[in-house]
Amino acid sequence: NKLGGREPLISEQRKPQVRKLVYKLIEKLESNEAQNFYLFKILRAHILPLTNCAFNKSGDRFITGSYDRTCKVWNTMTGEELLTLEGHKNVVYAIAFNNPFGDKIVTGSFDKTAKIWNAETGELYHTLRGHATEIVCLSFDPHGAVVATGSMDSTAKLWDVERGVELCTLLGHTAEIVSLNFNSSGDKIITGSFDHTTKVWDVHSGRCLHTLAGHRGEISSTQFDFTGDMCITGSIDRTCKVWNVNTGACVNTLRGHNDEILDVGFSCTGGRLVTASADGTARVYNTMTGACVAILIGHEGEISKVAFNPQGTKIITASSDRTCRMWDAETGDCLQVLEGHTDEIFSAAFNYEGDTIITGSKDNTCRIWKC
Fold first, then answer.
1. 365 within 8 A of 44, measured Cβ to Cβ
2. How would you label 54-88 residue by residue, b for 16+ Cβ within 10 Å and e otherwise?
3. pTM for this model (two decimals)
4. Looking at per-residue confidence, does 5 or 169 come out higher?
């Protein structure tokens, strides 16, 4: 009735229909909160160890990289292997879809090259040559027009996806680049390095806009928030810093961990952020105030990966204790332990809906979990 009073489009005749929809929505939200994930499929993906896994946007496909020099494409629903992308001459380490489109894949290798593939047919479009040493991180920009690669050679490079040519080299770091991210509009990129700094670059000109200096140890992980006005950096100095991307100023230094921070992530709105540490805990902070709002305690080994679900209500952590844990993002309560892997888990990712999780482990399996 309240809605009807405020919204002239909801006529008396429409009210029962709207009421039904609202109740359905409430029911869906409540059931989604309570639902546990179950093991859906185990995939023995590669002969040699896995390096990484990634979903496409809809979550019906995912990819795995491996020491066996290939990237494989899988059907999430059936667990069927769809494609093997062969051609690299060394470990395939970094992999990504061109989300939200999902029709191209980029692979980065210890053979110093990256390759762009057709995600449907497995056809090789381009081999990107130019780095002097291993490629360890990469990303498509949000429009799918540019690929960024980061290397042990202390440089990042931007490449034209369509033509397969180098657009520019981002020069300035003095040690390897281990993390890079585009903002949501695709006009800026950040690179995190073992030289203790993160740099903000203009994508069109390749110019360095800011050097975010202040950490006392190597950077392990970086991320933009949704607006692109803020970014966070996690470091082995045990702190996470929040930065204003436009001014380059450090807004907050988040302390509390007593060992290296290995991964960081924002919630979908950017109002919360989470840090994962070698001390076996993860911490949730209020981005604006810097207050620690929850400590996620329960793992018996270091946490190498952490992520919010797309709704921002849950957090997943992946640990060397061979488990993943699901946490309530508000209270910090452990909702579920995903058990079954027989070696450390290095990768855990939600699909866009938040109803499927993929975990990758040193036991050489990927597990698909559904709720």
1. yes
2. bbbeebebbbbbbbbbbbbbbebeeeeeebebebb
3. 0.89
4. 169
